[in-house]
Design brief:
The protein is mainly α and 111 residues long. Helices cover 41% and strands 9% of the residues.
Length: 111
């Protein structure tokens, strides 16, 4: 029992290190993705699901880099709540850990 508990402890430490490392990398690289493609007629104070591009895509306001919105749409920074955007992503460390777990285990990938 003592030998197996030591091995479980080592695997758990490795797993936590893996989750933390990739969670931090995700926050650093993808944490600031808040720009979305919306219709040109969208009022920034009254965003609805119908205003967003389908599928919802992140975009770049810089015309020389990143994804550019299709014609008839513009790139706009949206401050949406967690209840609208969902609880996965790399906006903060806790949600990034959840996202890394979800990707590693493929949990919740089927709609």
């Amino acid at each position: 029992f003592k030998r197996s508990s030591q091995q479980i402890y080592n695997v758990t430490l490795f797993f936590l290190f893996f989750m933390s490392l990739y969670g931090l990398l995700g926050v650093q690289f993808f944490g600031e993705l808040k720009n979305h493609c919306v219709l040109n007629t969208t009022d920034p104070k009254h965003i609805t699901i119908n205003s967003l591009a389908i599928p919802d895509t992140f975009c770049s306001v810089d015309p020389d880099s990143g994804y550019q919105c299709p014609e008839g749409m513009k790139c706009m920074k949206l401050e949406l709540t967690r209840y609208v955007m969902g609880f996965n992503g790399f906006d903060e460390f806790a949600t990034s850990i959840f996202t890394v777990y979800q990707a590693a285990s493929q949990e919740g990938w089927v709609f």
